[in-house]
Amino acid sequence: MFTLAQARYLVATLHPRIDELIGIRADLAELRADLAGGGMSALGGRAEVKALEARLHGVLEELNSHDIQVKGIAPVLLDFPGEHEGRAVLWCWLEGDPDVRWYHRVECGFAGRRPIR
User: For 33-50, what is each residue's pLDDT tens digit?
Assistant: First the structure.
């Protein structure tokens, strides 16, 4: 369980790794698109795809090791189990947000997101 302050601290602390994930994601998408049509890529070939996939997996494992729930990588969506007003919630961070500004009840999912007041 995370307090809101702990979730915000982790996002700030892990931001360099999240930025790395975003860069890997972009490189991987571009490389796959270039290679899909049998073309060439300045980013490399199949070996580089495997290397990027391994790096992506490593960043995701690190995030998971902090008990963060990675709900998506395009865009990056992270949930932090916590409690708000006596209910189980997930503190929610979405790529582009400056910090954790949303939460939703566990059973409601992303559609139930509410701003933190």
Answer: 999 978 789 999 999 999
Distance CA 82, CA 103 (A): 9
What residues have CB less than 8 Å from 56, skipping those under 6 apart?
A: 21, 24, 25, 28, 73
Which residues have CB under 8 Å from 107's CB, separation 6+? none
pTM value is 0.92
Of the candidates 91, 89, 81, 92, which has an alpha carbon nearest to the alpha carbon of residue 107?
Answer: 89
| 49 sits in which H/E element | helix 46-65
Q: Calculate ∠ Cα 75-112-116, nearest 5°.
A: 85
**Taking Cα atoms as reference points, which of 30, 28, 77 lies closest to residue 53?**
28
